[in-house]
Structure formats: C-alpha cells, structure tokens
Amino acid sequence: MNNDLQTAVLRLPQTVRDWDLVAKFLAFRKEIFVDHKGWPIFHTDELEFDNYDGGFDPVYIVAHRGRDVVGGLRLKRTDGRFGSGSVTYSYMIRDAWLGLLPGLPQNLCAVEPPVSTSVWEMTRFVAAREPEVVEALLLAANDFLFTESADECLFLGSRAFPRLARMLGWDVQLMGEVVGNDDGRFVAFRCPVMDPATALTKCRGLDRLLGREMPGRLPILS
C-alpha cells in the first residue's frame, strides 16, 4: 500500500495552519454518516458536525495522504464542560446516560460514566478501506493519549469494535449491555491507554485480522 500515509494531531490554537484537514474530516464524516448510512444527524450541504466539535477543547486525529483525508477520529477529555443556561454538556457517553441526548438510550452504561482528567472519549471514528489507515489512527490516538498522561479511553461503537480491540490485545471492559436505536446496535466500552511500543507490537496483526473483510468505509464509532 502507499507509504505516504500520515496522521496529524489537530487542536486549536496550536495547529490552526492545518485546520483545512479538520474541515475535510467533517466533510468525510458527512459523506459516510449522512450520505451513505443515512443517519438523521445535523449537517450542512458539505459538513457533518455536532456540539462536541465545539465546546471544550476537541482533539482530532486525521489520517491523510497529501491533503486528502482518508480517516479520522475525535477525542475529548471527560472532565470538560460546555453549554449555557440550564443544560451543560460534557461528553457523548455521559450525556446520553444523563438523558441529554434524545437519540441515544440512557441505559448504555450500567453505572455512572467517569469524569476525570485521565479519561478521554473517542467518537466519530471513520476510515477508508485499507487496514493500515485504521492501524495508523489507533496508534496515533494511543500515542497522543499516552503523552497526555491518560489512563483510559472510552468508546461508543458497533458490537464489532470491542471484538476487534480484544483481537489486537487491548483489555476491553464493557460499560453496559448492547443497546440500539434507529441507526443500529452499539455498545459503550473502555480500554487502558498502552505504552506506545506495546501498542505498536499489538497492532501489527491488524492487516491479517481484517484482511479483505472491511467495507468500502468503516464507520466504527458514533
């Protein structure tokens, strides 16, 4: 596969000169989640975005070749707060559990989701067909979280994603039962952040594990 694949860690104001990659990632999300999957989520003609793209310091990991985006994800620390008036938002899993997100079931977690400077949430993961794109995004996200002294990352995704994480050697802990809505069935789970060298060793089997079974696009997470 092409060896010019790169990943960028993007957050304001540090990486404002590369913010075109975030705009292209939002367009990529609109293509997959709205145009392909038909999810009834907010979007413009070109972009898909939500409250969590603003608010408290979102971080984006974007995979790209040149300036062409081929995948990405969003990270938010779980202790952040944003909003005005009587409603204050934090992160997607917790806000769903609190009943602040009508499209998501409240029972996706068995106990109250954590609030911590050392716990982050990953959402809006989407990648092109190549397994190397998925691998690059997961490794880059783990590396970033490790440098931020994070202990855990929370995920909200399809039932396939925790199985994949286990196959790659991550210690997956389900946060609740499999739940569903009109968009499908999904589950909340958590994984520890690993030392980057350990994560690299475990991820090297991803191409063999996924083989040719990946769809044209892989919207694993919400």
What does this structure look like?
The protein is of the alpha+beta class and 222 residues long. It has a single domain, classed as Aminopeptidase (3-Layer(aba) Sandwich), CATH 3.40.630.30. Helix content is 27%, strand content 26%. The strands form 2 sheets. Strands 1, 2, 3, 6, 7, 8, 9 and 10 form an 8-stranded mixed beta sheet that branches. A two-stranded antiparallel ribbon has the order 4-5. Helix 3 runs antiparallel to helix 5. It is globular, with a radius of gyration of 16 Å. The chain starts with 5 loop residues before the first strand and ends in a 12-residue tail after the last helix. The C terminus is likely disordered.
In short:
With 222 residues, this protein is α+β, with helices and mostly antiparallel strands. It contains six helices and ten strands; from the N terminus they run βαββββαβαβαβββαα. It has helices at residues 20-36, 92-97, 131-147, 160-167, 196-203, 206-210; strands spanning 6-10, 59-65, 68-77, 82-84, 87-89, 119-127, 152-158, 173-174, 179-181, 184-192.
